């Protein structure tokens, strides 16, 4: 009989815990208070390690968060797998008031999840750049986290974010955790406005990197390969040499031909690129276009050469 009573009590407690977490999620303050007064532990979690503070923070239920804190619910509790805190959840949901309240009450804005992301990163990754900047300004982030957030600004084409982080102290010539320099990331993605900002803030336009089998690619090569004509034109106007070679001996026009970038090739020709330039193996733009299945472009190049002749 005692075993049965114990089992029934366990079932009842599980039901109340589930109701408690759901009430926190749905903003039902009176239900939360009632369940707490009936013995539910404010620190209880679900199977993923989420507590009521996680749910209330994510949906901006400040009144419930106040009640939870007064009953001992931790502000910095981590979920079991991803190690995310209530502030991560609030940042994910774009809940400015939740984040502000958590910081004011002692939550850690520098808490890292299992991937090393802070709440500020979570805000940026999920389309809340203003909230991300608020979190960054509320505490002293490391150079690495500032740099990574700036890189996400580049990826989401948010020039204001990039500008703000550069003013905060982000290094335009640091690789960070992304394995690319900011100006290389901007070039590959065709973020011309952001490239201008980075160069104005001291980014090195003459950097090189290995790229998919091609070593020593300059920004112009990366831009041409990716078909970013606006960026290519910007680089040429900024002084990049149209005949700049990779360490493998490829000119930008070779890369345009190999990758089927017809309009990019036209742009390079306008800037004086040599349609008959040979790389180290003796291949010309026309032969490279043919070898890479761009037969229409090969025919076009030959016709352009014949027109010039």
TrEMBL record:
Report keywords, A-Z: ANK repeat, Repeat
Question: Which InterPro entries did the record assign?
Answer: Ankyrin_rpt, Ankyrin_rpt-contain_sf, Multifunctional_ANK_Repeat
Checking PROSITE patterns in the record gives: ANK_REP_REGION, ANK_REPEAT
Enumerate the transmembrane spans: none
The ranges of the ANK repeats are: 48-80, 82-114, 182-210, 215-247, 248-280
Protein known as: Uncharacterized protein
Task: Name the SUPFAM superfamilies for this protein.
Answer: Ankyrin repeat (SSF48403)
> In terms of domain of life, where is this protein from?
Eukaryota
């Amino acid at each position: 009989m005692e075993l049965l009573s114990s089992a029934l009590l366990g079932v009842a407690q599980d039901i109340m815990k589930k109701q408690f977490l759901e009430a926190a999620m749905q903003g039902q303050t009176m239900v939360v208070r009632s369940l707490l007064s009936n013995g539910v532990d404010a620190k209880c979690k679900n199977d993923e390690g989420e507590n009521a503070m996680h749910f209330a923070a994510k949906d901006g239920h400040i009144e419930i968060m106040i009640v939870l804190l007064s009953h001992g619910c931790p502000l910095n509790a981590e979920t079991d797998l991803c190690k995310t805190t209530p502030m991560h959840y609030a940042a994910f949901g774009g809940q400015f008031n939740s984040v502000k309240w958590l910081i004011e009450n002692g939550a850690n804005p520098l808490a890292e999840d299992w991937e090393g992301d802070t709440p500020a990163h979570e805000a940026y990754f999920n389309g809340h750049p203003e909230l991300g900047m608020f979190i960054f300004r509320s505490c002293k982030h490391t150079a690495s986290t500032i740099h990574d957030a700036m890189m996400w600004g580049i990826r989401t084409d948010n020039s204001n974010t990039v500008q703000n982080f550069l003013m905060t102290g982000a290094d335009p010539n640091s690789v960070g955790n992304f394995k690319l320099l900011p100006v290389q990331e901007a070039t590959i993605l065709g973020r011309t406005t952001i490239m201008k900002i980075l160069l104005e803030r001291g980014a090195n336009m003459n950097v090189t990197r290995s790229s998919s089998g091609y070593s020593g690619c300059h920004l112009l090569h990366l831009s041409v390969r990716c078909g970013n004509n606006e960026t290519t034109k910007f680089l040429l106007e900024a002084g990049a040499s149209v005949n700049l070679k990779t360490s493998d001996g490829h000119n930008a026009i070779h890369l345009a031909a190999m990758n089927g970038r017809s309009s990019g090739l036209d742009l390079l020709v306008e800037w004086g690129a040599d349609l008959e330039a040979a790389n180290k193996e003796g291949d010309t733009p026309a032969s490279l276009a043919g070898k890479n299945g761009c037969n229409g472009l090969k025919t076009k190049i030959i016709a352009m050469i014949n027109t010039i002749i």
